[in-house]
Structure formats: structure tokens, C-alpha cells
Amino acid sequence: MSSAGDDALETNLTDSVTTARLGQPALTVILPTIDNYQRIKKTLAHLQAQTARSEIEVLIVASSEEALRLDPAAAEGFFDLRVIEVGEIESLAAAKSLAAAEARADWVVFSEDHSWPEPGWAEALIAAHREGYAVVGPIIRNANPGSTLSWTNYLACFSRWSHTGLAGKVSQTPWHNSSYGRELLLERQANLPRLLAVEGILQDEMREEGHRLYLLPGVATDHVNISRLSAWILQAFWGGKLYGGSRIEGEEWGVFRRLAYICGMPLIPMLRFKRLLPEIRPLTRQHSLMPRILPALVLNLIIHAVGEVIGYALGKGDAEDQYLEFEARRFEAITRQDRDALGIELPQPDSLES
User: Which of 1, 58, 253, 284 could form a disulfide with 289 if both were Cys (CB 3.0 to 4.6 A apart)?
Assistant: First the structure.
């Protein structure tokens, strides 16, 4: 038996499908790649498996169409697939901002080469937007759960969106994996690269304007998380510095507020852990994780906090450039065992071997 809310979502999805068939896609998916088709091949396969794929416009952001070397079969079944040529990608946030201006759908979702949504993902995003939600995201699952480092990277980044028990109206949705009303993005076009670099700042801004954010229940994407030790350490540090530096830049912090956060550095990992604990408890119990991951999780939070306070003190500097390595070259930041288990082939030599 379906509820009235379910019926409303189904009606709204039908309306969006009709709109798409009349000449407008229902959803634009923005998928950047720093090199070629090989890196985004698996994500495109998951997009082609979407139940609403004929309503999806895919915008691949690449240095050039020639360098991308797209397999023509990868474009089959979509409403449309276009390549947005941006030259050498030095900032994923800037590249995604350029693509957002080219989107034709009313709703725009940012996708990743290392995040693979299940078949009902696009349908659910469209239906939730039709219900009036401005920002919508899926549950995030750990795609490579074989190591302690992967689990701690996953929980440190995605604890708030790690299981259906957290779904519903939320204060934030998963960074790099959420969909937005296109007009809300275009209103911020001048500042969008800065806001997308630390997506939580963008979402906080939208929420403060009265827009609603929603985490989908029972709809997930499988996300590949860092499992190589050197990359695990560096990603936590540079991610912290990018976060801290972006906050003081966007919110125009004064000297005294910056000093307060710098002096409070020892409290940052403790407060984060206190917040994480109830969010991750169902998963840690289900997988008997806590004794195994606790030391590494605490270390990860400390490393991130060190980077964060350096960002408060000195600004973000080149943190976005450094962080790009771990977002745009995720498959080099996981172990060879994980790549084999996931069926991943590197499009270039493994540059992060430790």
C-alpha cells in the first residue's frame, strides 16, 4: 500500500518525465574527469543503468573532447550527452561551475568518477525536487570496505549520510554527490567555484535563505574511499586546511575569531568525534568495527584538525590544488587490492604508490 506522500512523488516523477519528452531533460548530471573516458567508465555505466536514464542530460567536463576519447556506446540511452571542454582542469569546483551554466534541466546533480549510484537514484532525486526540496542527496555507502583506512576515511567524511536512519530533512547533504535547483546555482555564478570547493558552505547559505535540504531514504550511491596510507594522511590534512581557509575567506572572519579557533584546536577533534559517535553507531555495530577503527578514526580527526587550524591561521593557500589530487585521482589513492576488487583499471601510471 502506498502512502499519500508516495503517490505525490510518483505523480511528480510522471510530470517530470513528460516534461523531458517535450524537449527538456529532467535532470542534468555533471561528471568531471581530469584525463579520459577510462576514469569515468564505471560511473557512466551506472548512469546508463538508471531507470530514468532517458530523462538525464549528462555533461562530461574534460580538458577536450579529443583527450576524452569517449566510447560512443557510453552516450546511448540518455536524453543527451555533451562534452564541456574547459582546458586543463586545475580546480574541480571551477570546472563544475562552468558546466552548471550549460545545464538545461531544472535540477543539477554533481557526480564523481568514484561514486556509483544505484538504478533508482535519478528517479528519486527528481521526485524529491518536485516535492519542493532545493537540495537533495542519497545515502552514501562504502564501496571498498575491506580496510580500516577506508572505513575511517568514509566515516570521517560521510557519517551524517551513512544510513537510512539519518534520512529526511537535514541541515546538509553529501558533498560532491548532491543535486541542486539550477537557478540557485546560477544566482551564485560569480562565487560558485569558491562555494563548491567546500560544499557545506554553499548548503549552509541556501538553508539560511529558507531552502529545504533532503536526504533520500533507501536510495544510495557506492562511494570509493581512500585506503592508501600516504594518501589517507595527506587528504585529511589538506581537506582540513581547505575547510578552515575557505571558512575565513567566505565568512570574513576577524582576527579574534580566528585566534579563538586556533587556540581551541585540541577541542576540534573531540567535538567532531562526539558528533560522529551517534551517527556511526548503527554501522559500527553491524560490522563490528569500533575496536578496529577507533585509533585510526581519532588520528584522522586530529590530522584534519591540524590542517583546519593552519587554514584559520594562514588561509587556504594551495590547499585546493593539493586536495584535487585525491578527488580527481581517487583510484591512485586506494590500494591495489581495492582496485582489483572493484575492477578498476588506471588510465595512467599509478602516481601515488607508497
Answer: 284
- State whether 129 and 276 are in the same domain: no
Q: Do the domain assignments include residue 25?
A: yes
Domain that includes residue 86, residue range: 4-151+164-223
Alpha-carbon span 149 to 297, nearest angstrom: 8
Q: pLDDT digit string (tens) for 271-304?
A: 999 999 999 998 888 888 988 999 999 999 999 9
Query: Of the residues 177, 195, 223, which one is the last residue of a structural domain?
Result: 223
User: Once rounded to an integer, what is the mean pLDDT over residues 85-99?
Assistant: 96
Rounded Cα gap, residues 295 and 293, in angstroms: 6
In a domain, 353, yes or no: no
Domain count, the chain: 2
> Residue 90: how many CB atoms within 10 A of its CB?
12
Which residue, 177, 201, 223, sits at the end of a domain? 223
Query: Which residues on neighbouring strands pair with residue 214, listed in sequence order?
Result: 136, 169
Which pTM does this prediction carry?
0.90
Task: Name the pLDDT band for 22 (thresholds 50, 70, 90).
Answer: low
CA–CA gap between residue 220 and residue 188 (Å, rounded): 28
Residue 347 forms part of a structural domain = no
Residue 348, number of CB atoms within 10 A of its CB: 13
- Closest C-alpha among 148, 78, 149 to residue 111: 78
For the stretch 248-273, pLDDT in tens is 988 889 999 999 999 999 999 999 99
